[in-house]
Amino acid sequence: MTALLDISGLSLSFAGNSVLQGVEFAIERGAIVSLIGPNGAGKTSLFNCITGFYKPQRGRIGFDGAEMLRLKPWQVTQAGIARTFQNVRLFRQMSVLENVMSGQHCRTSAGAIGAILRLPAQRREEERIRDCAGRCLRFVGISSDEWDRDATTLAYGHQRRVEIARALATEPRLLLLDEPAAGLTKGEKTELVELIRRIRDERGVSVLLIEHDTSLVMSISERVSVLDHGVMIAQGSPRQIQADPRVIEAYLGSEDAEAVLAL
Amino acid sequence: MALSSGSSGPQSVEARPSAWGGLGEILDTPTKRRIAIVVILAVMIVAPIAFGPYATVILTNALLYAILALGLNIVVGYAGLLDLGYAAFFAVGAYSVGILTTTFGWTFWEAITVAVIAAIVAGVVIGGPTLRLRSDYLAIVTLGFGEIVRIAARNLQITGGASGIIGIQQPWLFGWHIATPTDFYYVFLALAIIGILVSVRLANSRLGRAWLYVRHDEDAAEAMGIDRVRVKLAAYIIGAIYGAIGGAFFAVNFTAISPQSFSFQQSTLFLMAVVLGGMGKIPGVILGAFIVVLGPELLRDLGSFRYLVFAVGLLLIMLYRPSGIWPMGSRR
Amino acid sequence: MTLTTLIAQQLVNGLVLGSFYALVALGYTMVFGVVKLLNFAHGDLYMTGAFAGFGAFSLLAGGVGAGWLGVAVSVVAAMIAVGILGVIIERIAYAPMLKAPRLSILITALAVSLVLQNSALTLTSGQFIPFSPRLGFAGINLGPIFINFKQIALAAAAAALMVGLELFVSRTQYGRAMRAVSVDKDMSELMGIDVNRIIAVTFFLGSALAGAAGTMAGAYYGSINYFMGFLIGLKAFTAAVIGGIGSIPGAMLGGLVLGLLESFGTTIPGVGSEWKDVFSFSVLILVLVFKPTGLLGKSEQERM
């Protein structure tokens, strides 16, 4: 069975500086995979390549058999890959519900004419968009009395969840989470682990996350891939990665080293 | 436009204050708002009789600007595209009607249909390649297009060159000859009301939200599956249609058009109308239109000095009250 | 006129015109480099320069004469005056808006432009003011074509200013700081560069160049009016884009290229002086759509 996401020979450079070199990487259907590596390793750049924001110079990105390399970001999302951002990027001056409703844009089609004439099909679609957004919000645990608030006035932990709900509203098959635990309290991190599991178990969405919190990575991942200076240096189960000398060496000297070595 | 989805009691922090802004706090129930709308409508309907012929002409002009400001508001206020050449669409509408009715003898209604189609084509041709540019470049490119249209109008045979077109026939509608200033006042009033309704419905729709998403954070919007070029193009084209319709009726109202009416100055006046009152908010935009038309009337004695007053006003608004003159309402 | 004569004449015209465009384009590009803003009011600074130069000339013509010296002094006076004006505008109108949404700062720039234009409109009631220094019509003959001294002086002055600017940017500390700020503003701040001061210097220089171009244009063409900045602003922007926005040599190159394109463009049958502007705008649009980084700019993906 082909992998859900299949990346081979991916190379990216900016103005002569190499950011990713010959990256080989695959995600199986229904998997929860973590991408780790020291700061500046190229993890977010890899995300940006997958989601179409960066155009790599070489390589292939296959998603469920389809070639993703030349697609624009909105096309990638429409194909079934959704993402969250490292620094929460909710739409300001818009409500929580409206933020999540944005995810449904690519799954609906009502245009200007439908809107102006308030055609029945358009009104039904609006209902559906609202319902879907509401369900996603309930799924991540945001109660309805927060839905009308300006999204950026929410507590930080809630904002992160809204961003996940927004990504889920695009009905993805693969969800990319960029440092979803950054800034969360211990309790919130436990909830996050639960949420990620439920995303996979109840919604059938595969998950790829970039994360620095090693205990979180170890507790949730089925597989871990390690990126260092743009090169994929190790891939395997969490246990294997911990024992891998190349990984230890890559982290030596960085603040994460102790965390990785201690586990 | 506040999106209602259930509770919005006094404790909740509303995402966006309603379009009524500060006025919305005095008119805080739907009934009060409906009454306000009825009162305003009533005043507007009896205006020609109540305020006399001179006021009627001025108000008609204000309504024309309101229609155009509503159209430009969709482009600038909703989609966030700085269009400095909006007068080009105004010109397309006016000249389509002018040329087709005088040179080719078409009826007004046939001509305006072509005008709208021409505006859509113009919107696609101009917007297609340029809407993906960053906003600074887009502003100057739209300015350039505005100038191209004006220069073309000034130099082509078919547009009457620098003297323009005269003797444009005024339209008939089911036996009613639309010819007097009062007739045109009611036509523009009806158009303005339609324009408002269309804007409201668009703002509260999937497309309207898409404009806001793209405007607030283009990249995040793309990540959510929104094709930002297509969304911007939709705004641009809808704005073009407003402009062309305004231009078409403008042509038959004055029965004569010349390139002077479609200059960069004109485009900036439309933009001022949108910004001064309150960009993105319908009551603000209409207020802005009225300020831009009535202002020079009131400041008539100052001569060319009044444009300086407007320019300074615009600068002060941008620096100290970018949300426009319309009261904002309490801060969240 | 033989073909070579025509080409030679247009070459001269093109280079002279191009010098104007280059001077104004430089200001555009320098400001864009440090604050990433297209100063919409830049063209009107050119116009203000023309007025300032005219003012200086009227005041000083009694003392230094209405000839070459008078013009030179007026140019310098205009440069200083417009340079200061540029800094004032930056402090009052742009600095407070740098954190605001893009649209707001663009409209603010437009507002500044309108204030400048309408001030001049009010002052002159829209009329063309004659500005005729006594420079004579003498010139030299280069083969079949005639180049008058005014054209030589203009090209020479523009070249001198551009060389001066290039030296400033590449040799002085300020110049190096300017380049640093245009590459990475935050990093420059961390390295201890007083970014605000550098921005002010950049605005001063860019505006001064525009002011010089304005005075020279006024003296060369013989009149000034409130609207002269509008078109030159667009042309200068076109020149800056052709050369690659943000690149100083690019602005110089772009200016000359545009000047030559326009001169040769007018010889195409059908393209008279009215259509010349349409021709230039079309060039602008084509460049932006097909090669937005211009001739000397780098094709680069933006980092997110």
Detailed description of the structure:
The complex is a heterotrimer of chains A (263), B (332) and C (304). In chain A, 40% of the residues lie in helices and 22% in strands. Chain A is α/β, with parallel strands linked by helices. In chain A, helix 5 packs across helix 6. In chain B, 69% of the residues lie in helices and 2% in strands. Chain B is mostly helical and 332 residues long. Chain C is mostly helical and 304 residues long. The longest helix of chain C has 33 residues.
Based on the model shown, name its key terms.
heterotrimer, A: 263 residues, alpha/beta, 6-stranded mixed beta sheet, 4-stranded antiparallel beta sheet, 11 helices, 40% helix, B: 332 residues, mainly alpha, two-stranded antiparallel ribbon, 4 strands, 2% strand, disordered N terminus
SSE topology sketch:
The complex is a heterotrimer of chains A (263), B (332) and C (304).
Chain A: E1 5-14, E2 17-27, E3 32-36, H1 43-50, E4 58-63, E5 66-67, H2 73-79, E6 81-83, H3 96-101, H4 112-117, H5 120-140, H6 156-168, E7 174-178, H7 186-203, E8 206-210, H8 214-220, E9 223-228, E10 231-236, H9 238-243, H10 245-251, H11 256-262
Parallel strand pairs in A: 3-8, 3-9, 6-7, 7-8
Antiparallel strand pairs in A: 1-2, 1-4, 4-5, 9-10
Helix pairs in contact in A: 5-6
Chain B: H1 23-26, H2 30-78, H3 87-102, H4 108-130, H5 135-155, E1 165-166, E2 172-173, E3 176-177, H6 181-203, H7 206-216, H8 218-223, H9 228-254, E4 256-257, H10 264-278, H11 282-298, H12 305-320
Antiparallel strand pairs in B: 1-4, 2-3
Chain C: H1 3-35, H2 42-64, H3 68-94, H4 102-124, E1 129-130, E2 139-142, E3 145-148, H5 149-171, H6 173-183, H7 185-190, H8 195-221, E4 223-224, H9 228-243, H10 248-265, H11 273-290
Antiparallel strand pairs in C: 1-4, 2-3
Helix pairs in contact in C: 1-5, 1-6, 1-8, 1-9, 1-10, 2-3, 2-4, 2-8, 2-9, 3-8, 5-6, 5-8, 6-8, 9-10, 9-11, 10-11
What's the oligomerization state?
Answer: heterotrimer
What is the 3D form of chain C?
globular
Strand content of chain C: under 5%
Helices and strands of chain A, in order, run as: EEEHEEHEHHHHEHEHEEHHH
Note the run of SSEs of chain C as H and E. Answer: HHHHEEEHHHHEHHH
Mean pLDDT of chain A: 90
Biggest chain pair contact, residues each? A-B, 51 and 38 residues
Query: Taking strands numbered 1, 2, ... along the chain, how are they ordered across the largest sheet of chain A?
Result: 6-7-8-3-9-10
- Average pLDDT figure of chain C: 85
